[in-house]
Write a structure and sequence with these properties.
With 210 residues, the protein is of the alpha/beta class. Helix content is 46%, strand content 16%. It has 9 helices and 8 strands. The strands form 2 sheets. Strands 2-3-1-4-8 form a 5-stranded parallel sheet, sandwiched between helices. Strand 5 (123-126) and strand 6 form a beta hairpin. Helix 4 packs across helix 5 and helix 6 runs antiparallel to helix 7. The relative contact order is 0.17.
Length: 210
Amino acid sequence: MKLILLGAPGAGKGTQAEILSAKLGIPTISTGNILRAAIKDGTPIGLEAKSYMDAGKLVPDSVIIGIVAQRLEQPDCANGFILDGVPRTIGQAEALDKAGVAFDHVISIEISDGEIVDRMAGRRVCSSCGAPYHVKAKPPKQEGVCDSCGGPLVQRDDDKAETVLHRLEVYHAETEPLKGYYEGKGVLSPVANQATIEATTDVIMEALGI
């Protein structure tokens, strides 16, 4: 099964990708991971990407998609894969089409901006050991103190409301149009975010016909 997970930042794509990967027995392809691997391995396209990054420029869609297409040729993708973090724009989706990469399903996790801001603004992380918490969903036994090591809990800049709102603006402008693009291809399945991770997985599996 060839699958794309769409959703706003904080919608839970990474968590669901990890669960689906285990359930379906197919790898999750994360753009950031394969970009770093291509650069580390010194592949021609990895070196091309590095030249843009070293110059402080954005890596062009053609290079990003070239790296993704190479990764999808690996043997572990023979039975399918899950793309997480790509495509981010219509341009990248069109580049995937040109590279001959087709999909069976595109799952869009639907969640309101308000819920995302609330969810991400409540995140805390231990500054010493990195253990994750949430002020509502997973609070520490003592406020502001890590259960594991006693270190202070902090809010990352990425999780602050103003940063989250900016990321959501970018998502709505650049990535959300992909829903219409894949709806036109007849492969889009919008899935409402559920109260628990497990329940969201269940509705995704149902959308996949499994």
